[in-house]
Amino acid sequence: MPSTIAQSRITIQNTLTLSDINGAPGADIIQGLSQTPKTLPPQYFYDEQGSILFEKICNLPEYYPTRTEASILRNFAHAIAHETGPCELIELGSGSSTKTRYLLSAYADLGQAFQYVPVDVSGEMLTQSAHQLIKEYPSLTVHGLVGTYEQAMAQLPTPPNTPRLMIFLGSTLGNFTPEQSDRFLAKIHASLRPGDYFLLGVDLQKSPEVLHAAYNDAQGVTAAFNLNMLTHLNCRFGSNFILENFKHRAVYNQDFGQIEMYLDCHTDQNVNFKTLNYQVNVCSGESIQTEISRKFKVDALTKNLAQHNLTLHQVWTDPQDWFALLLLQCV
Ligand SMILES: C[S@@+](CC[C@H](N)C(=O)[O-])C[C@H]1O[C@@H](n2cnc3c(N)ncnc32)[C@H](O)[C@@H]1O
User: Fold this and answer.
1) Segment 71-80, tens digit of pLDDT
2) Ligand 1 pocket test: which of 172, 180, 184 has the largest number of ligand atoms within 8 Å of its C-beta?
3) How do 10-14 and 4-7 pair as beta strands?
Protein backbone atom coordinates (compact mmCIF):
# COMPACT_ATOMS: atom_id res chain seq x y z
CA MET A 1 0.00 0.00 0.00
CA PRO A 2 1.24 3.55 -0.66
CA SER A 3 2.37 5.34 2.49
CA THR A 4 1.83 8.98 3.31
CA ILE A 5 3.75 11.11 5.83
CA ALA A 6 2.03 14.39 6.62
CA GLN A 7 3.04 17.36 8.77
CA SER A 8 1.35 20.74 8.68
CA ARG A 9 2.91 22.14 5.47
CA ILE A 10 4.48 19.01 4.10
CA THR A 11 3.10 15.73 2.74
CA ILE A 12 5.26 12.98 1.25
CA GLN A 13 3.29 10.31 -0.59
CA ASN A 14 4.93 7.09 -1.74
CA THR A 15 3.50 5.89 -5.05
CA LEU A 16 6.33 3.43 -5.81
CA THR A 17 4.57 0.34 -4.45
CA LEU A 18 1.66 0.66 -6.86
CA SER A 19 3.26 -1.82 -9.27
CA ASP A 20 -0.02 -2.36 -11.10
CA ILE A 21 0.29 1.08 -12.70
CA ASN A 22 3.62 0.44 -14.37
CA GLY A 23 3.79 -3.36 -14.66
CA ALA A 24 5.63 -5.71 -12.27
CA PRO A 25 8.77 -4.23 -10.62
CA GLY A 26 11.80 -4.95 -12.80
CA ALA A 27 9.76 -5.81 -15.92
CA ASP A 28 11.46 -2.89 -17.68
CA ILE A 29 14.90 -4.39 -16.86
CA ILE A 30 13.98 -7.79 -18.30
CA GLN A 31 12.57 -6.13 -21.41
CA GLY A 32 15.69 -3.98 -21.93
CA LEU A 33 18.19 -6.79 -21.41
CA SER A 34 16.23 -9.24 -23.60
CA GLN A 35 16.49 -7.04 -26.69
CA THR A 36 19.41 -6.53 -29.09
CA PRO A 37 21.29 -4.29 -28.49
CA LYS A 38 20.74 -4.46 -24.75
CA THR A 39 19.48 -1.41 -22.84
CA LEU A 40 18.81 -0.50 -19.20
CA PRO A 41 16.26 2.21 -18.20
CA PRO A 42 17.96 5.44 -17.03
CA GLN A 43 15.70 5.74 -13.97
CA TYR A 44 17.94 3.08 -12.33
CA PHE A 45 20.81 5.60 -12.20
CA TYR A 46 19.10 7.09 -9.19
CA ASP A 47 19.63 5.35 -5.87
CA GLU A 48 21.03 7.48 -3.02
CA GLN A 49 24.59 7.25 -4.37
CA GLY A 50 23.39 7.92 -7.95
CA SER A 51 21.66 11.11 -6.83
CA ILE A 52 24.86 12.25 -5.05
CA LEU A 53 26.94 11.51 -8.17
CA PHE A 54 24.46 13.38 -10.37
CA GLU A 55 24.78 16.44 -8.13
CA LYS A 56 28.58 16.19 -8.57
CA ILE A 57 28.19 15.98 -12.36
CA CYS A 58 26.12 19.18 -12.28
CA ASN A 59 29.11 21.00 -10.75
CA LEU A 60 31.76 19.68 -13.16
CA PRO A 61 33.52 22.28 -15.31
CA GLU A 62 32.78 20.31 -18.51
CA TYR A 63 29.09 19.79 -17.73
CA TYR A 64 27.57 23.04 -19.05
CA PRO A 65 23.80 22.09 -19.04
CA THR A 66 23.06 22.65 -15.35
CA ARG A 67 24.79 25.99 -14.94
CA THR A 68 23.45 27.24 -18.30
CA GLU A 69 19.86 26.31 -17.47
CA ALA A 70 20.36 27.80 -13.98
CA SER A 71 21.52 31.08 -15.52
CA ILE A 72 18.38 31.26 -17.69
CA LEU A 73 16.19 30.59 -14.66
CA ARG A 74 18.10 33.17 -12.60
CA ASN A 75 17.56 35.79 -15.32
CA PHE A 76 13.97 34.99 -16.25
CA ALA A 77 12.16 33.30 -13.32
CA HIS A 78 10.35 36.54 -12.48
CA ALA A 79 9.35 36.97 -16.14
CA ILE A 80 7.94 33.41 -16.10
CA ALA A 81 5.97 34.04 -12.89
CA HIS A 82 4.72 37.33 -14.33
CA GLU A 83 3.51 35.54 -17.51
CA THR A 84 1.59 32.81 -15.68
CA GLY A 85 0.50 34.61 -12.51
CA PRO A 86 0.01 32.53 -9.31
CA CYS A 87 0.22 28.77 -10.02
CA GLU A 88 0.53 25.37 -8.40
CA LEU A 89 4.03 24.16 -9.33
CA ILE A 90 4.51 20.47 -10.18
CA GLU A 91 8.05 19.35 -10.98
CA LEU A 92 8.82 16.00 -12.62
CA GLY A 93 12.27 14.64 -11.63
CA SER A 94 12.79 17.37 -9.04
CA GLY A 95 16.07 15.95 -7.61
CA SER A 96 17.49 18.44 -5.11
CA SER A 97 15.17 21.24 -6.42
CA THR A 98 18.27 23.47 -6.57
CA LYS A 99 17.46 25.31 -9.81
CA THR A 100 13.75 25.29 -8.93
CA ARG A 101 14.50 27.73 -6.11
CA TYR A 102 14.72 30.54 -8.69
CA LEU A 103 11.13 29.76 -9.64
CA LEU A 104 9.96 29.26 -6.05
CA SER A 105 11.42 32.66 -5.11
CA ALA A 106 9.72 34.33 -8.08
CA TYR A 107 6.33 32.74 -7.25
CA ALA A 108 6.74 33.61 -3.56
CA ASP A 109 7.30 37.22 -4.65
CA LEU A 110 3.81 37.21 -6.22
CA GLY A 111 2.63 37.43 -2.62
CA GLN A 112 0.22 34.45 -2.45
CA ALA A 113 0.50 31.13 -0.60
CA PHE A 114 1.24 28.37 -3.13
CA GLN A 115 1.86 24.63 -3.44
CA TYR A 116 4.88 22.80 -4.87
CA VAL A 117 4.53 19.14 -5.92
CA PRO A 118 7.99 17.60 -6.45
CA VAL A 119 8.02 14.16 -8.10
CA ASP A 120 11.05 11.87 -7.98
CA VAL A 121 11.96 8.17 -7.81
CA SER A 122 14.66 9.08 -5.30
CA GLY A 123 12.70 9.34 -2.03
CA GLU A 124 15.69 10.32 0.13
CA MET A 125 16.57 13.32 -2.03
CA LEU A 126 12.94 14.42 -2.36
CA THR A 127 12.21 14.21 1.39
CA GLN A 128 15.40 16.06 2.39
CA SER A 129 14.72 18.85 -0.12
CA ALA A 130 11.05 19.16 0.89
CA HIS A 131 11.97 19.72 4.56
CA GLN A 132 14.55 22.32 3.59
CA LEU A 133 12.16 24.14 1.23
CA ILE A 134 9.39 24.73 3.78
CA LYS A 135 12.00 26.35 6.04
CA GLU A 136 13.12 28.63 3.20
CA TYR A 137 9.65 29.60 1.89
CA PRO A 138 7.06 30.45 4.59
CA SER A 139 4.22 30.78 2.04
CA LEU A 140 4.88 27.31 0.56
CA THR A 141 3.21 23.92 1.13
CA VAL A 142 4.92 20.86 -0.33
CA HIS A 143 3.11 17.72 -1.50
CA GLY A 144 5.91 15.35 -2.57
CA LEU A 145 5.21 12.29 -4.71
CA VAL A 146 7.85 9.53 -4.57
CA GLY A 147 7.53 7.46 -7.72
CA THR A 148 7.96 7.43 -11.47
CA TYR A 149 6.61 10.22 -13.65
CA GLU A 150 3.77 7.97 -14.82
CA GLN A 151 2.83 6.84 -11.30
CA ALA A 152 2.87 10.42 -10.03
CA MET A 153 0.91 11.86 -12.95
CA ALA A 154 -1.82 9.31 -12.20
CA GLN A 155 -1.95 10.47 -8.55
CA LEU A 156 -1.63 14.25 -8.64
CA PRO A 157 -3.40 16.10 -5.82
CA THR A 158 -6.85 17.56 -6.58
CA PRO A 159 -6.42 20.45 -9.03
CA PRO A 160 -6.34 23.83 -7.26
CA ASN A 161 -8.26 26.96 -8.30
CA THR A 162 -5.09 28.52 -9.69
CA PRO A 163 -3.55 27.18 -12.94
CA ARG A 164 -0.95 24.43 -12.85
CA LEU A 165 2.62 24.91 -14.01
CA MET A 166 4.16 21.54 -14.86
CA ILE A 167 7.98 21.83 -14.79
CA PHE A 168 10.38 19.45 -16.55
CA LEU A 169 13.96 20.70 -16.38
CA GLY A 170 17.45 19.34 -17.05
CA SER A 171 16.65 18.31 -20.66
CA THR A 172 15.35 15.03 -19.25
CA LEU A 173 12.97 14.93 -22.25
CA GLY A 174 16.11 14.17 -24.30
CA ASN A 175 16.52 10.88 -22.41
CA PHE A 176 13.41 9.55 -24.15
CA THR A 177 13.35 8.13 -27.68
CA PRO A 178 11.00 10.09 -29.98
CA GLU A 179 8.31 7.40 -29.42
CA GLN A 180 8.71 7.49 -25.62
CA SER A 181 8.68 11.28 -25.76
CA ASP A 182 5.37 11.30 -27.68
CA ARG A 183 3.78 8.98 -25.13
CA PHE A 184 5.14 11.12 -22.28
CA LEU A 185 3.88 14.41 -23.80
CA ALA A 186 0.44 12.87 -24.27
CA LYS A 187 0.43 12.10 -20.52
CA ILE A 188 1.56 15.63 -19.68
CA HIS A 189 -1.31 17.01 -21.76
CA ALA A 190 -3.78 14.66 -20.07
CA SER A 191 -2.73 15.86 -16.61
CA LEU A 192 -3.22 19.54 -17.48
CA ARG A 193 -6.38 21.55 -18.10
CA PRO A 194 -6.75 24.12 -20.90
CA GLY A 195 -4.87 27.26 -19.86
CA ASP A 196 -2.42 25.36 -17.61
CA TYR A 197 1.30 25.78 -18.33
CA PHE A 198 4.25 23.50 -19.10
CA LEU A 199 7.81 24.77 -18.54
CA LEU A 200 10.35 22.66 -20.40
CA GLY A 201 14.18 22.95 -20.21
CA VAL A 202 16.04 21.46 -23.19
CA ASP A 203 19.64 21.17 -24.30
CA LEU A 204 20.21 22.50 -27.84
CA GLN A 205 22.38 21.22 -30.71
CA LYS A 206 25.98 22.45 -30.51
CA SER A 207 29.55 21.45 -31.38
CA PRO A 208 30.31 17.72 -30.90
CA GLU A 209 33.51 18.63 -28.98
CA VAL A 210 31.57 20.50 -26.28
CA LEU A 211 29.07 17.63 -26.05
CA HIS A 212 31.73 14.92 -25.92
CA ALA A 213 33.62 16.67 -23.11
CA ALA A 214 30.42 17.10 -21.07
CA TYR A 215 29.81 13.33 -20.91
CA ASN A 216 33.47 12.23 -20.59
CA ASP A 217 34.70 14.39 -17.72
CA ALA A 218 38.35 14.30 -16.70
CA GLN A 219 37.59 13.30 -13.07
CA GLY A 220 35.59 10.23 -14.13
CA VAL A 221 32.44 11.22 -12.22
CA THR A 222 30.17 10.42 -15.19
CA ALA A 223 31.88 7.02 -15.49
CA ALA A 224 31.22 6.36 -11.78
CA PHE A 225 27.59 7.48 -12.22
CA ASN A 226 27.12 5.11 -15.18
CA LEU A 227 28.70 2.13 -13.37
CA ASN A 228 26.72 2.86 -10.19
CA MET A 229 23.60 1.71 -12.03
CA LEU A 230 24.95 -1.85 -11.81
CA THR A 231 25.59 -1.50 -8.05
CA HIS A 232 22.03 -0.20 -7.66
CA LEU A 233 20.60 -3.16 -9.61
CA ASN A 234 22.73 -5.60 -7.56
CA CYS A 235 21.32 -4.14 -4.31
CA ARG A 236 17.74 -3.76 -5.46
CA PHE A 237 17.18 -6.90 -7.54
CA GLY A 238 19.87 -9.25 -6.13
CA SER A 239 21.82 -9.32 -9.41
CA ASN A 240 25.54 -10.17 -9.58
CA PHE A 241 26.99 -7.71 -12.12
CA ILE A 242 30.80 -7.63 -11.63
CA LEU A 243 31.61 -3.95 -12.06
CA GLU A 244 35.24 -4.59 -13.09
CA ASN A 245 33.90 -6.31 -16.24
CA PHE A 246 32.34 -3.07 -17.50
CA LYS A 247 33.63 0.27 -18.74
CA HIS A 248 31.86 3.61 -19.28
CA ARG A 249 31.63 4.97 -22.86
CA ALA A 250 29.80 8.09 -24.10
CA VAL A 251 29.72 9.04 -27.80
CA TYR A 252 27.96 11.71 -29.84
CA ASN A 253 25.89 10.16 -32.65
CA GLN A 254 25.74 12.93 -35.23
CA ASP A 255 23.13 11.17 -37.39
CA PHE A 256 20.63 11.13 -34.53
CA GLY A 257 21.88 14.34 -32.83
CA GLN A 258 22.24 12.53 -29.51
CA ILE A 259 24.79 11.51 -26.90
CA GLU A 260 24.68 7.76 -26.27
CA MET A 261 26.00 6.32 -23.04
CA TYR A 262 27.02 2.68 -22.76
CA LEU A 263 28.49 0.15 -20.36
CA ASP A 264 30.91 -1.92 -22.48
CA CYS A 265 31.41 -5.49 -21.28
CA HIS A 266 34.98 -6.89 -21.37
CA THR A 267 34.45 -10.38 -19.90
CA ASP A 268 31.59 -12.81 -20.57
CA GLN A 269 29.20 -12.90 -17.65
CA ASN A 270 26.01 -14.75 -16.79
CA VAL A 271 24.00 -12.22 -14.78
CA ASN A 272 21.42 -13.66 -12.39
CA PHE A 273 18.70 -11.34 -11.04
CA LYS A 274 17.65 -13.35 -7.97
CA THR A 275 14.52 -11.37 -7.07
CA LEU A 276 13.32 -11.26 -10.69
CA ASN A 277 13.99 -14.96 -11.34
CA TYR A 278 15.77 -13.87 -14.54
CA GLN A 279 19.20 -14.72 -16.01
CA VAL A 280 20.95 -13.17 -18.99
CA ASN A 281 24.33 -13.67 -20.69
CA VAL A 282 26.34 -10.53 -21.34
CA CYS A 283 29.23 -11.29 -23.72
CA SER A 284 32.66 -9.72 -24.00
CA GLY A 285 32.45 -7.00 -26.68
CA GLU A 286 28.75 -6.38 -26.00
CA SER A 287 27.51 -2.91 -24.97
CA ILE A 288 24.53 -2.09 -22.78
CA GLN A 289 23.00 1.29 -23.62
CA THR A 290 22.12 3.10 -20.39
CA GLU A 291 21.11 6.52 -21.69
CA ILE A 292 20.50 8.64 -24.73
CA SER A 293 20.53 12.41 -24.46
CA ARG A 294 18.94 14.01 -27.52
CA LYS A 295 19.92 17.56 -28.38
CA PHE A 296 17.12 19.72 -29.74
CA LYS A 297 16.33 22.44 -32.28
CA VAL A 298 13.69 24.81 -30.92
CA ASP A 299 11.64 24.98 -34.16
CA ALA A 300 11.30 21.23 -34.62
CA LEU A 301 10.57 20.70 -30.93
CA THR A 302 7.91 23.44 -30.91
CA LYS A 303 6.13 21.73 -33.85
CA ASN A 304 6.23 18.40 -32.02
CA LEU A 305 4.82 19.97 -28.85
CA ALA A 306 2.03 21.67 -30.83
CA GLN A 307 0.99 18.22 -32.10
CA HIS A 308 0.32 17.43 -28.44
CA ASN A 309 -1.77 20.60 -27.99
CA LEU A 310 1.02 22.29 -26.04
CA THR A 311 1.47 25.65 -27.74
CA LEU A 312 4.50 27.86 -27.37
CA HIS A 313 4.03 30.96 -25.22
CA GLN A 314 7.65 32.14 -24.93
CA VAL A 315 11.27 30.89 -25.22
CA TRP A 316 14.25 32.06 -23.17
CA THR A 317 17.86 31.08 -23.96
CA ASP A 318 21.43 31.91 -22.88
CA PRO A 319 23.79 34.17 -24.91
CA GLN A 320 25.41 31.14 -26.64
CA ASP A 321 22.05 29.50 -27.47
CA TRP A 322 23.20 26.32 -25.75
CA PHE A 323 20.07 25.70 -23.71
CA ALA A 324 16.42 26.81 -23.92
CA LEU A 325 13.48 27.18 -21.54
CA LEU A 326 10.12 26.89 -23.30
CA LEU A 327 6.92 28.09 -21.66
CA LEU A 328 3.98 26.29 -23.26
CA GLN A 329 0.28 26.47 -22.67
CA CYS A 330 -2.19 23.61 -22.78
CA VAL A 331 -5.04 24.02 -25.30
C1 LIG B 1 18.79 14.22 -14.68
S2 LIG B 1 18.14 14.42 -13.07
C3 LIG B 1 17.48 16.04 -13.20
C4 LIG B 1 17.27 16.67 -11.85
C5 LIG B 1 16.78 18.10 -11.91
N6 LIG B 1 15.44 18.19 -12.47
C7 LIG B 1 17.73 18.93 -12.73
O8 LIG B 1 17.30 19.47 -13.75
O9 LIG B 1 18.88 19.06 -12.34
C10 LIG B 1 16.76 13.44 -13.17
C11 LIG B 1 15.97 13.36 -11.87
O12 LIG B 1 14.80 12.65 -12.18
C13 LIG B 1 14.64 11.54 -11.34
N14 LIG B 1 14.11 10.47 -12.20
C15 LIG B 1 14.75 9.79 -13.16
N16 LIG B 1 13.92 8.96 -13.80
C17 LIG B 1 12.70 9.13 -13.21
C18 LIG B 1 11.41 8.58 -13.44
N19 LIG B 1 11.20 7.67 -14.39
N20 LIG B 1 10.39 9.01 -12.67
C21 LIG B 1 10.59 9.94 -11.68
N22 LIG B 1 11.79 10.51 -11.43
C23 LIG B 1 12.82 10.11 -12.18
C24 LIG B 1 16.00 11.24 -10.76
O25 LIG B 1 15.95 10.66 -9.47
C26 LIG B 1 16.66 12.61 -10.75
O27 LIG B 1 16.47 13.28 -9.54
Assistant:
1) 999 999 999 9
2) 172
3) antiparallel
